Amino acid sequence: MRRRQLVQLAGATLVVPAFGLQAQADTFPVKPIKLVIAFPAGGPTDITMRALADNASKILGQPVVVENKPGAGGTLPAQGLQSAPADGYTLAQIPLGVFRLPYTTKISWDPVKDISYVLNVTGYAFGLVVPADSQLRTWTHFVAWAKANPGKLSYGSTGTLTSPHLTMELVAQKLGLELLHVPYKGSADLMQAVLGGHVMAASDSTGFAPQVEAGKLRVLNTWGAERLAKFPDAPTLKELGLDIVQNSPFGIGAPKGTPVAVVKRLHDAFKQAMEMDSYKTALGRYDMVPMYMGTAQYGKFAESTFATEKALVDKLGLAKAP
Fold first, then answer.
1. Cα(63)–Cα(56) distance, rounded to whole angstroms?
2. What pLDDT is stored for residue 272 in this prediction?
3. For the segment 72-100, what is each residue's pLDDT rounded down to a tens digit?
4. pLDDT at 21
5. Which residue of 9, 107, 137, 164 is most buried, as measured by CB atoms within 10 A?
6. Residue 236: strand pairing partners
7. What does the pLDDT look like over 226-257, one tens digit per residue?
8. What is the mean pLDDT of residues 176-191?
9. Strands 154-157, 201-205: parallel, antiparallel or unpaired by DSSP?
10. Backbone angles phi, psi at 265, to 5 degrees
11. Comparing C-alpha atoms, which of 243, 300, 277, 256 is closest to residue 120?
């Protein structure tokens, strides 16, 4: 009899944590939530994600506090999830660069298996800009100057192995160009660099829009499937004969093992936050649009993107040494 009681007690101790997690999920959230984003304050990612976080705060009944953690090609927030408690109170923006990380850097975690994917929220509109007084007045001038001056045409991006960097390298490979890449931590720093003459061009999301509208920068091309309404005179890469479309979807992830009910609560709140006019208005400033993927779909997107990014890194010869 005593042995049976011990077995029952042992069984009970195994069940308690599960009940504890469910109770936690039922009352979630009871304190502020931290949302870590991968780029500096003042850029399009920061501004749009703060609008989304503010909306989500109203729905969740707790503040969603944005923390900026730029650097390492936009992968630091995702790395931070690996040591954060799996309770839903630490979230991270997941840029496309996260799926390239294992192919270029030695890491001890898996971007597909070691993140709880909550939902995808949007993607970027990208393009290439030069100073308004640049001699590189069109894409044709850009290509011709680069061919005549191998390795001397400098362009800045928002970081090594980010989509603006890799897309430009893919373009250069297709056209036989040798460009000089200069990485920056985010759009704000990059814009200062190109306006200050530190680089000849900048590949970025449309955080450059205010400078273009002020007559300080000129758009040579954009990278979507169609021309941007804000820059109707700028051709797409496809129109220029390059079969490339880049919009770099990104969303929100939580630590691996976050309770399913907590992930659902976060998903539902952020999906509702995406549908509010204030978020759509913030996106519209940068020609971005809501790009919703639910939890299951976003997880499948992570798997497929992990494979396609390996192909891109291999093609560009950027894979880490074995």
1. 8
2. 98
3. 888 999 999 999 999 999 999 999 999 99
4. 55
5. 164
6. 222
7. 999 899 999 999 999 999 999 999 999 999 99
8. 94
9. parallel
10. -60, -45
11. 300
Cα separation, 216 vs 208, whole angstroms: 10
Find out whether the peptide bond into 29 is cis, omega within 30 degrees of 0.
yes
H helix intervals, the chain: 2-27, 44-60, 76-81, 101-104, 139-148, 163-175, 187-195, 209-213, 260-274, 277-284, 295-316
- Amino acid making up residue 129: V
Q: For 7-48, write each residue's pLDDT tens digit.
A: 444 444 344 355 555 566 678 999 999 999 999 998 889 999
- Phi, psi (rounded to 5 degrees) for 66: -85, 130
What's the pLDDT score for residue 10?
Answer: 42
What percent of the chain has a predicted confidence (pLDDT) above 90? 78
Could you tell me the domains of the chain? 2-123+249-316 (3.40.190.150), 126-222 (3.40.190.10)
Angle at 27 between CA 22 and CA 29, to 5 degrees: 115
Q: Characterise 248 by phi-psi region: left (phi > 0), alpha (psi -120 to 50), beta (else).
A: left
Residue 301, exposed/middle/buried by CB under 10 A (0-12, 13-18, 19+)? middle
Buried-exposed string 214-243: b where 16+ CB fall within 10 A, e elsewhere: eebbbbbbbbbeeebebbeebbbbeeeebe
Task: Concatenate the DSSP letters of all residues of 166-209 into one string.
Answer: HHHHHHHHHHT---EEEE-SSHHHHHHHHHTTSSSEEEEEGGGH
Strands in 290-293's sheet, in edge-to-edge order, are 64-68, 33-37, 90-94, 250-255, 115-122, 290-293
Contacts of 252 (CB under 8 A, 6+ apart): 35, 91, 92, 93, 94, 118, 119, 121, 266, 270
Q: Quick one: pLDDT at residue 319?
A: 81
In contact, 206 and 286? CB cutoff 8 Å: yes
SS (H, E, C) 58-77: HHHCCCEEEEECCCHHHCHH
